[in-house]
Amino acid sequence: MTTTFFVNLMAAGLARGTPILFATLGGVVAERSGVMNLGIEGMMLVGAMTAFATARSTGSALAGVLAGIAAAAALGLAYAVVVVYLRADQVVSGLALGFVGTGLSAVMGAPLVEQREATATIPSWEVPGLSSIPVLGEVLFRQNLIVWIGFALVPLCWLLLYRTRWGLAIRAVGEHPSAADSMGVPVYRVRTISMVFAGAMAGLAGASLSLAVTPGWVDGMTAGQGWVAVGLVIFAGWDPFRAAAGAWLFGAIRRLPLDLQAVEGLPLFRNPNLGYFLSMLPYLFVMAAMVAGSQRAMRKRLGAPAALGLPWTRGER
Question: In the CATH hierarchy, which fold is given to the domain comprising 2-302?
Answer without folding.
Answer: ABC transporter involved in vitamin B12 uptake, BtuC (1.10.3470)
